[in-house]
Specification:
Blueprint: H1 4-12, E1 54-58, H2 82-92, E2 96-100, H3 110-119, E3 124-128, H4 136-144, E4 147-152, H5 162-179, E5 182-185, H6 189-194, H7 196-200, E6 206-208, H8 223-231, E7 235-240, H9 256-265, E8 270-273, H10 299-309, H11 313-328
Parallel strand pairs: 1-2, 2-3, 3-4, 4-5, 5-6, 6-7, 7-8
């Protein structure tokens, strides 16, 4: 399976590691151990998150001895455990979380499921990678144990066509429908535009992650398709990981018009996610078994940015509480 990062880089020329950040690291080869510490927020939150607030986009990276990574991965992040996730949520004063299986595990969702068990289904859900040939018994068990959606890649190699994308999407729609899951899609807006009608008629909910990968602003080709799907209520969109798109950190002011357009179109279909632990992904000159240090980002600062982007408290409550509760079944 090509990683989400490879997919987006190939389609849109994006660099997953934000320009200016990757140069901060000295890459060394070492053995990953449980002693590694995930980044904890340090910036105090400037508003009081409402009860039931949900971070809809985090990853858990387990001890590799217990949760081995795929040999086909293209990077190796340090651990970010469920215990550390609890601490991060406590700092933000968030009650709920959605754990997204990272592509380093391919279709093995064991680390995500273990984290859901540890946090409890009253406060945690998961979004998984699955294969179309995965036995129904396994999928049923995943659904029973907190998996609420599946990740979808709409591009897998050269020679991709609109027909092949539509076929792959339909296979995932059919799979999700059987288990009452939603689809979480990571792909640039021009690809979304190519399958807009199919997404608009989907019998399952659709989630576009990472601002719909709109890195070029509201004038980017395909943005109108993203906006239309959100406005009609056919798709949710995550205001998550702005550092994947913008080179104007730490405040990512170039994304403000995108946020305003999306929230203005339909605040009932907007979600927020920190992206913790802010994995850096692959980088030139770094082997896939070399540890890729997490990006030096602060989830507290990212949450404060969200509050500045969405100053209306009632709208923030929708995005942080009501919308994720509806989508993920809290």
């Amino acid at each position: 399976m090509l990683s989400r990062r490879s997919i987006v880089r190939t389609l849109s020329g994006l660099c997953v590691v934000t320009a200016g950040l990757s140069g901060l690291y000295v890459v060394t080869r070492r053995t990953i151990g449980a002693s590694a510490t995930a980044p904890m927020p340090k910036t105090p939150v400037t508003f009081k998150p409402p009860p039931g607030a949900c971070d809809t986009h985090v990853h858990v990276i387990g001890d590799p001895k217990q949760f081995p990574m795929s040999p086909d991965r293209d990077y190796t992040p340090p651990p970010a455990t469920a215990d550390e996730l609890k601490e991060m949520l406590r700092f933000l004063n968030f009650d709920r979380v959605v754990i997204i299986t990272p592509d380093i595990y391919d279709i093995d969702n064991s680390a995500t499921l273990a984290a859901i068990r540890q946090l409890g289904k009253d406060r945690a859900r998961g979004v998984a990678w699955v294969a179309e040939g995965t036995p129904s018994k396994v999928l049923d068990s995943m659904a029973e144990n907190g998996i609420a959606g599946i990740r979808v890649s709409l591009y897998q190699g050269r020679g991709v066509t609109a027909e092949s994308i539509a076929k792959r999407l339909q296979a995932k729609v059919d799979l999700a429908k059987k288990h009452r899951w939603h689809l979480q899609i990571a792909t640039p807006p021009d690809v979304i535009a190519a399958v807009e009608a199919q997404l608009a008629s989907s019998p399952v909910s659709v989630v576009l992650d990472t601002f719909g990968w709109v890195e070029g602003g509201v004038a980017q080709p395909g943005f109108n398709a993203v906006l239309s799907l959100v406005k009609s209520g056919k798709a949710y969109i995550k205001l998550a990981e702005p550092y994947r798109l913008s080179k104007q950190g730490p405040d990512y002011s170039d994304l403000i018009p995108v946020v305003q357009a999306l929230v203005g179109a339909n605040p009932d279909r907007v979600l927020w996610g920190s992206g913790w632990p802010h994995v850096s992904g692959s980088a030139p000159g770094r082997g896939k078994e070399d540890v890729s240090p997490d990006l030096p980002l602060d989830s507290g600062h990212l949450l404060n940015l969200f509050a500045a982007w969405v100053p209306d408290a009632e709208t923030r409550d929708k995005i942080l509480v009501d919308n994720p509760a509806r989508l993920y079944g809290f």
